[in-house]
Write a sequence for this structure.
């Protein structure tokens, strides 16, 4: 307890500092003025002033996902809070630990339709892991510490703390984070040993095992990823990762088959279809991964490691659920598998031979012969080749460019890949890159973007300018919402309804207007020099890459199809019309 | 999925804090689960705990999801599927208003006696009956009152508790 009472706003700042927070992404307004006043009077906390509250949440997500720490957001009441809703939903879907402080009208005005009043706890209830409305300054310190505990423990997620203005002015006691645990919320971290033994026996006996890792591995941390890697290598099994899991297992390791799912690699999806044991680790059998459920991995037993009991048996029934933190479960499994007899060599070799045949299909092939225009895949191959040795952090927006980035950019470490997976939020990449750059000032941070997505939060270029953040925006510009256009081509008879953006800005001038360097390339032979110039420019850069407007993203599992019904390229599409059931799926 | 739909009675112990009911109800509506009935009241004043009894129906997979999703809510302490966990007793109370005169009025009183319903309010032309029992018993009584001048029903929804000495 603090010796004497301090005002609520000072309690907020002190609680953040005691939680180890070094940076807050926010935007001031009437209801949070007391907090901004307290911010002004201290030096321990840095505040990054965004240009729209949605950008603040995505920036905090980028910060959190690239550090493993809690990202913190501070916004005002009413529109400040409602603007944050998309980011909060994004963080909930992708399990990103965020604490979002929202201002609120004073307690005596709540419910009165006061100026800039919104029912923030009501609006954010379904899009947060938990939320609080603090009506008494005596509860404030405890609630703030509890919010951090809830955000980062178990399956992480966003937590909103709604702060009425009178509570921020009122004087109250401060208590530290020591008793910050929630009185009943205790996620199970350690698995049931009997289940571990059961799972280990299945793994050792499997002839065609496949590991399927997801974002939960990254959330659990580098230790979980290291144990996962060791387990995959010990078992000598192939491994695939979800979009959110990229980096959890080194892409350069020959056990890695590439990403799985709708735009995953042929070998990954075929292995998932053909395996006899599927070991899901921190992944949730999302519809983008499973394809048609009744045809999903039909011949396999399934082990599912997850910290969230509600993820287990949600979409796919599993044989051995292992509830707990990935690191703890994998540690226990490693112990069991290391002492077990080696897998039978012949069966495993046959499995690898099958996989090699699938790999030989070279599912990411594209027309490399074109000299007159830039293929988006080529642009990403060159970006990877020219930046890989700099250990860059990559963020993306949402759409074709995102899938190509996931296919062509290779990650050997966790925390280096930030993308909006579950919610699919266009406009995520630029503010996320900004948050990553704040956390890693000296690092190379690239937002692989589409021209449509980046415009959704382009105002954050101004934030990037203010804090001199050397973020690089690598725009694959095809003048279309490419994924929308692709679906219209494949499913709607080529009627490109509203997917073409007329009157796009001149991105070079736009960059310059925000004090950044702008460049544009239109020919393949200019690309390498432009990428080098982008990296070598000390400040922010927008590189506008004009790419083939009609390129589609393959491989693709059409909606309602199974893993073994993938389309590998444009030639495939005529033979397999998408079913009516598939059409209604997203 | 045309799996067999099961009816389950689930007891949930929660922190009695603002918004908890909205959280539970929002979970059911947001994820498309059914609520056949829901009751809630504080049961432990010292620890500020409330007990929510939910009667729901769904396939076994959905029921399992409902329990997992409920357990995931931060203010939820415990979730018990009474239907799964052995014998339990379930009761519901209803207040039933019947308006009429003459033979119908006397008949309603006679049936109420058979059902052991008590009269808690009366005028010369109306009764309010109080009846406790299983949902089926209440349904049967209400059906019988229908032709006898039934005008209004208020039901609590089910509350339930496990049989035997075991504590929740």
């Amino acid at each position: 307890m603090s010796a004497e009472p301090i005002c609520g706003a000072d309690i907020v700042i002190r609680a953040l500092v005691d939680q180890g927070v070094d940076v807050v992404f926010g935007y001031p307004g009437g209801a949070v003025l007391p907090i901004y006043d307290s911010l002004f009077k201290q030096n321990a906390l840095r505040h990054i002033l965004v240009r729209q509250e949605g950008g603040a949440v995505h920036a905090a997500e980028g910060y959190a996902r690239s550090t493993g720490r809690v990202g913190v957001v501070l916004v005002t009441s009413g529109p400040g809070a409602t603007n944050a809703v998309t980011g909060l939903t994004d963080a909930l879907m992708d399990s990103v630990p965020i604490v979002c402080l929202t201002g609120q009208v004073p307690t005596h005005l709540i419910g009165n339709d006061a100026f800039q009043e919104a029912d923030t706890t009501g609006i954010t209830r379904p899009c947060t892991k938990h939320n609080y409305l603090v009506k008494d300054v005596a509860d404030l310190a405890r609630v703030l510490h509890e919010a951090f505990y809830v955000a980062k423990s178990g399956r992480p997620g966003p937590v909103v703390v709604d702060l009425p203005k009178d509570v921020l002015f009122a004087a109250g006691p401060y208590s530290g984070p020591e008793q910050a645990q929630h009185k009943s919320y205790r996620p199970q971290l350690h698995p049931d040993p009997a289940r571990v033994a059961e799972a280990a026996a299945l793994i050792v006996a499997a002839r065609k095992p496949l590991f399927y890792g997801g974002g939960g591995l990254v959330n659990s941390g580098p230790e979980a990823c290291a144990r996962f890697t060791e387990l995959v290598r010990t078992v000598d099994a192939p491994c695939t990762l979800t979009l959110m899991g990229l980096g959890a297992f080194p892409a350069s390791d020959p056990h890695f088959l590439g990403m799985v799912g709708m735009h995953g690699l042929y070998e990954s999806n075929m292995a998932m279809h053909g395996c006899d044991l599927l070991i899901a680790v921190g992944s949730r059998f999302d519809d983008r991964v499973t394809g048609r459920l009744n045809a999903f991995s039909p011949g396999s037993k399934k082990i599912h490691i997850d910290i969230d009991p509600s993820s287990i048996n949600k979409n796919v029934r599993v044989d051995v659920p292992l509830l707990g933190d990935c690191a703890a479960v994998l540690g226990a499994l490693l112990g069991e598998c290391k002492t077990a007899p080696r897998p039978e060599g012949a069966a495993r070799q046959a499995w690898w031979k099958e996989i090699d045949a699938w790999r030989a299909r070279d599912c990411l092939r594209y027309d490399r012969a074109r000299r007159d225009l830039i293929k988006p895949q080529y642009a990403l191959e060159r970006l990877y080749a020219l930046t890989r040795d700099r250990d860059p952090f990559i963020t993306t927006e949402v759409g074709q460019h995102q899938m190509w980035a996931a296919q062509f950019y290779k990650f050997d470490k966790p925390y280096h890949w930030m993308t909006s997976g579950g919610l699919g939020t266009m406009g995520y990449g630029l503010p996320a890159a900004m948050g990553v750059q704040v956390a890693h000032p000296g690092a190379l941070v690239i937002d692989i973007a589409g021209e449509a997505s980046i415009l959704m939060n382009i105002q954050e270029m101004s934030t990037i300018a203010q804090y001199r953040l050397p973020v690089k925006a690598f725009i694959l510009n095809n003048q279309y919402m490419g994924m929308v256009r692709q679906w219209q081509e494949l499913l709607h008879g080529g009627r490109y309804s509203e997917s073409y953006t007329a009157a796009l800005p001149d991105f070079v001038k736009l960059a310059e207007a925000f004090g950044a360097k702008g460049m544009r390339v239109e020919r393949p032979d200019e690309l390498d020099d432009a990428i080098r110039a982008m990296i070598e420019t000390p400040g922010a850069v927008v590189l506008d890459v004009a790419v083939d407007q009609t390129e589609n993203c393959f491989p693709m599992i059409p909606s309602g199809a199974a893993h073994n019904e993938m389309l590998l390229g444009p030639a495939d599409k005529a033979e397999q019309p998408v079913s009516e059931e598939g059409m209604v799926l997203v | 999925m045309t799996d067999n739909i099961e009816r389950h009675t689930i007891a949930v112990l929660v922190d009695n804090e603002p918004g908890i009911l909205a959280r539970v109800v929002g979970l059911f509506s947001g994820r498309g689960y059914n609520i056949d009935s829901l009751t809630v009241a504080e049961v432990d004043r010292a620890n500020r705990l409330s007990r929510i009894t939910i009667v729901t129906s769904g396939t076994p997979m959905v029921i399992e999801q409902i329990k997992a999703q409920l357990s995931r809510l931060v203010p939820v302490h415990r979730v018990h599927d009474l239907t799964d966990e052995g014998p339990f007793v379930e009761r519901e109370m209803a207040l039933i208003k019947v308006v009429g005169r003459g033979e119908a009025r006397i008949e309603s009183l006679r049936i109420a006696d058979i059902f052991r319903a008590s009269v808690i309010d009366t005028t010369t032309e109306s009764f309010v009956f109080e009846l406790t029992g299983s949902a089926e018993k209440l349904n049967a009584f209400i059906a019988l009152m229908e032709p006898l001048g039934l005008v209004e029903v208020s039901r609590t929804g089910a509350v339930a508790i496990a049989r035997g000495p075991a504590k929740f």
